[in-house]
């Protein structure tokens, strides 16, 4: 079985700071892989490398067998890699509907289209409604996203990523700063899209309940490299993982 | 021929020194506060005209010392009452504001001192050539290069050794952290602005002696300082210094071969740098945004 | 939003513009002033395509405006006695220059982008200044005038009639506004909006940000150079001042004053600016100081502009 994502010995240096140090990882298609680790372990840098925001100092990244190391973020989106950010990146002064509409239009190849066609507008609207339906956001479709709750903003961002019809979805701390109820909502959304669309998902998370609920496998990062990998059961009992999080065992 | 090239190259170096001095001031303000002070040329002109007015009373050296200081004072006021209100906002607004100030300064100097070029008094002790063989090294030109070198050295020492300088440098890297450390960022920005304007003022007083004094002196010198920053590198003071000198010398040498391209050549250099290395020769790639 | 609501601003604008020569004269103005408002308004709207709708800080648009003007002047003086060809040459000159410069600078953002646009603006100023034999240098280029446009019975006597010229210019504004409106409401226009609202998110939706900024840059320069071409025709004259940094600054203040986020805002801003400038320059020589002070006041106290107070409706 070939991996959808293969990260091969990637190192990322910022001057003298080594954020990622010889990291390798294989993610199978359809897998939901959680990436955890203490702060500073390199999780967000790792996401930035996979999504193309930065280029690695050394090493290569393969997506579906193809070397994407030199590709720009836009190009990677075109290949099927979509992501959300730790600090939600949406269009706060546009409505929810407009946010999704832009995402859908770009995906259906309408980036450069100069004229509007009623038929295409209709198709876009159908797709936007579909997406809104996933989380029941239709009643708030005409509200400015910036005015919505944190949870709704995050949900919108995830929907925008879904609109891109990705094959690999990178979610960077989607439940950070959320109440229990919001956390549950987001976790459910993720579980549903994973199950219904068989999306491959990489999830950076701190909330262990979410991980226990969702993850097929877990990769633990520490100091820029893979410390351990396995199922939830295997990871939580691993001494090295405990040490990385809690310091030396007493 | 070689004499001619040397003469123009040296001239170019002198002019490059002005560009560098002015660009350093501009760069200081840009790096710390993210503001393009388009009025920088205006401050330069104001200082030059102030010196012109003060010299009859205070003498050449008096004018040289006092005029830039007064102009820096004006800069402090401008920052405090006008520019400070715009920091949180889109950089468009501070640029527009300084544009407006540039208009006021240019027109103001025209109203107060007239549109005609004024003769700027240079002390006779400096007007004579330093040596017979190297006739192009007039005392004034040598003096200017030395003074600029001294000013630049003093600037780098201030930045490296004094508390203010270190705070400015830290603030350039990360203003938020600096404020969290308890340093008064407002005062820091204000003083930094004043320092930047002082450098422009000094450049103005020196330039007037060599290039002549007229209301458009400011706007004619500000563009090269932009180019100096772009060529030398965004966010880098040594880069700005290098950029200024480079374009000055390039401009000077071009005068020998293609006199009408003297001004254009610095833009050609800018275009070349943008093509090959957008963040400039010594610049910080992360600063592009 | 009903169709009526959506098209109302255009109706109002059209009504006001078509009748401008009359109500302006009643207020003490003259037809040429009306033409100047429309022309500078076109330039400001062109700039705003980039500034207000794509969120890109360009302070060097006088370059393309001026190139449009010099294109017209040099064509009529040296090449072909045809206003239409002259306009075409002017627009081509400005647009091609923008295409080249845009490609060079598209990786920069924010204040650095602004700096470079200002610097490039100056290049053309220097060329116009220095190249006396061809451009007339600081004195500007004279010895030519606008010629009637058209064929046989469909000829519009631009030369003889200020009013005819006004309607000619207005027609071009109308076409330009229609084109810009179409672009902004299209899917392409929405990608520009996305870039303005959150460039990073736009990029991570797969929008090729640099390419779209370049396109927006070229489109905005096209309309600015058309305005410049008409400006030269209006005055039967062009000089380097049309290329100077203060001309660029004027366009920006017009856009801001009228309201950057509104489509017709820059035109309104141009109207206010031109009228104010006309009023002040009849009273005093140092109108430039007043303009500068005006900039300062607008920025400090009126940044959203005249039409910026209209509540934003969702883009449809």
Layout of helices and strands:
The complex is a heterotrimer of chains A (about 250), B (about 290) and C (about 325).
Chain A: E1 5-14, E2 17-27, E3 32-36, H1 43-51, E4 58-63, E5 66-67, H2 73-79, E6 81-83, H3 96-107, H4 118-135, H5 150-163, E7 168-172, H6 180-197, E8 200-204, H7 208-214, E9 217-222, E10 225-230, H8 232-236, H9 239-246
Parallel strand pairs in A: 3-8, 3-9, 6-7, 7-8
Antiparallel strand pairs in A: 1-2, 1-4, 4-5, 9-10
Helix pairs in contact in A: 3-4, 3-5, 4-5
Chain B: H1 2-33, H2 40-81, H3 91-113, H4 124-127, H5 139-161, H6 163-173, H7 175-180, H8 185-211, H9 217-232, H10 237-257, H11 264-276
Helix pairs in contact in B: 1-5, 1-8, 1-9, 1-10, 2-3, 2-8, 2-9, 5-6, 5-8, 6-8, 9-10, 9-11, 10-11
Chain C: H1 3-26, H2 31-51, H3 62-79, H4 83-105, H5 110-130, H6 132-135, H7 162-185, H8 187-197, H9 199-203, H10 209-235, H11 245-258, H12 265-283, H13 287-301
Helix pairs in contact in C: 1-2, 1-7, 2-7, 2-10, 2-11, 2-12, 3-4, 3-5, 3-10, 4-10, 7-8, 8-10, 11-12
Notable characteristics:
heterotrimer, A: Rossmann fold, six-stranded mixed beta sheet, globular, C: 316 residues, mainly alpha, disordered C terminus
Write a structural description.
The complex is a heterotrimer of chains A (250), B (289) and C (316). With 250 residues, chain A is an alpha/beta fold. Chain A is 39% helix and 24% strand. Chain A has a six-stranded mixed beta sheet with strand order 6-7-8-3-9-10, with helices on both faces. Chain A starts with a strand and ends with a helix. The relative contact order of chain A is 0.18. The longest helix of chain B is centred in the first third of the chain and has 42 residues, at 40-81. Chain C is mainly alpha-helical and 316 residues long. Chains in contact: A-C, B-C. The interface between A and C is medium-sized, with 33 and 25 residues.
């Amino acid at each position: 079985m070939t991996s959808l994502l293969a990260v091969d010995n990637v190192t990322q240096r910022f001057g003298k700071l080594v954020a990622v140090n010889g990291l390798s990882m294989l993610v199978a298609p359809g897998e939901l892989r959680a990436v955890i680790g203490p702060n500073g372990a390199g999780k967000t840098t790792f996401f930035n490398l996979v999504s193309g925001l930065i280029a690695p100092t050394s090493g290569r990244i393969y997506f579906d067998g193809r070397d994407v190391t030199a590709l720009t973020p836009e190009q990677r989106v075109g290949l099927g890699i979509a992501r959300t950010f730790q600090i939600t990146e949406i269009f706060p002064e546009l409505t929810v509907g407009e946010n999704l509409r832009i995402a859908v239009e770009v995906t259906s190849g309408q980036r450069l289209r100069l004229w509007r066609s009623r038929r295409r507008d209709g198709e876009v609207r159908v797709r936007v409604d579909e997406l809104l339906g996933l989380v029941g956001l239709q009643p708030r479709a005409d509200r400015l996203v910036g005015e919505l709750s944190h949870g709704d903003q995050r949900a919108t961002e995830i929907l925008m990523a879904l609109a891109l019809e990705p094959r690999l979805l990178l979610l960077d701390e989607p439940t950070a700063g959320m109440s229990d109820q919001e956390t549950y909502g987001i976790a459910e959304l993720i579980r549903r899209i994973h199950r219904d669309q068989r999306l491959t998902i990489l999830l950076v998370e701190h909330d262990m309940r979410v991980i226990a609920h969702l993850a097929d496998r877990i990769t633990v990062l520490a100091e820029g490299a893979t410390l351990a990998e396995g199922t939830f059961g295997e990871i939580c009992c691993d001494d090295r993982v405990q040490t990385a999080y809690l310091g030396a065992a007493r | 021929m070689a004499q001619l090239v040397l003469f123009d190259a040296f001239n170019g170096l002198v002019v490059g020194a002005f560009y560098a001095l002015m660009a350093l001031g501009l760069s200081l303000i840009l790096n710390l506060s993210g503001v393009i002070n388009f009025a920088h040329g205006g401050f330069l002109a104001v200082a030059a005209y102030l010196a012109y007015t003060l010299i009859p009373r205070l003498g050449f050296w008096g004018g040289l010392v006092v005029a830039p200081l007064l102009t820096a004072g004006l800069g402090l006021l401008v920052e405090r009452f006008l520019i400070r209100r715009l920091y949180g906002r889109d950089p468009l607004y501070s640029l527009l504001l300084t544009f407006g100030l540039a208009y006021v300064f240019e027109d103001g100097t025209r109203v107060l001192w007239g549109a005609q070029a004024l003769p700027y008094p240079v002390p006779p002790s400096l007007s004579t050539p330093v040596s017979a063989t190297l006739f192009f090294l007039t005392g004034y030109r040598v003096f200017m290069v030395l003074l600029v070198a001294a000013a630049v050295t003093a600037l780098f020492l201030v930045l490296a050794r004094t508390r203010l300088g270190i705070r400015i440098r830290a603030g350039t890297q990360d203003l938020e952290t600096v404020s969290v450390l308890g340093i008064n960022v407002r005062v820091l920005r204000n003083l930094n602005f004043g320092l930047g304007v002082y450098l422009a003022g000094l450049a103005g007083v020196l330039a007037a002696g060599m290039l002549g004094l007229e209301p458009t002196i400011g706007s004619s010198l500000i563009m090269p300082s932009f180019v100096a920053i772009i060529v030398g590198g965004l966010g880098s003071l040594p880069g700005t210094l290098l950029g200024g000198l480079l374009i000055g010398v390039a401009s000077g040498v071009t005068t020998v071969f293609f006199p009408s391209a003297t001004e254009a050549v610095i833009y050609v250099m800018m275009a070349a740098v943008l093509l090959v290395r957008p963040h400039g020769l010594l610049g910080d790639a992360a600063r592009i945004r | 939003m009903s169709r009526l609501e959506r098209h109302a601003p255009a109706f109002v604008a059209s009504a006001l513009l078509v009748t401008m020569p009359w109500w302006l004269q009643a207020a003490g103005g003259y037809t040429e002033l009306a033409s100047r408002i429309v022309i500078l308004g076109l330039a400001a709207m062109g700039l705003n395509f980039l500034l207000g709708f794509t969120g890109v800080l360009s302070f060097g648009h006088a370059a393309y405006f001026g190139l449009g003007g010099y294109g017209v002047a040099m064509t009529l003086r040296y090449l072909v006695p045809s206003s239409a060809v002259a306009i075409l040459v002017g627009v081509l000159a400005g647009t091609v220059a923008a295409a080249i410069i845009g490609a060079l600078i598209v990786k920069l953002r924010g204040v650095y982008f602004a700096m470079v646009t200002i610097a490039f603006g100056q290049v053309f100023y220097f060329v116009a200044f220095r190249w006396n034999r061809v451009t007339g240098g600081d004195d500007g280029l004279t010895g030519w005038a606008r010629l009637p446009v058209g064929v046989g019975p469909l000829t519009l006597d631009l030369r003889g009639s200020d009013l005819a010229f006004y309607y000619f210019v207005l027609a071009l504004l109308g076409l330009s506004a229609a084109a810009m409106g179409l672009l902004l409401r299209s899917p392409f226009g929405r990608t520009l909006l996305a870039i303005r609202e959150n460039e990073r998110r736009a990029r991570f939706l797969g929008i090729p940000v640099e390419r779209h900024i370049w396109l927006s840059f070229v489109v905005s320069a096209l309309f600015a150079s058309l305005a410049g071409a008409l400006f030269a025709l209006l005055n039967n004259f062009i000089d380097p001042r049309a290329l100077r940094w203060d001309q660029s600054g004027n366009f920006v203040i017009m856009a801001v004053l009228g309201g950057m986020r509104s489509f017709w805002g820059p035109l309104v801003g141009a109207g206010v600016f031109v009228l104010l400038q006309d009023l002040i320059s009849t009273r005093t020589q140092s109108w430039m100081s007043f303009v500068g002070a005006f900039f300062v006041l607008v920025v400090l106290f009126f940044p959203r502009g005249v039409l910026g107070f209209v509540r934003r409706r969702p883009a449809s």
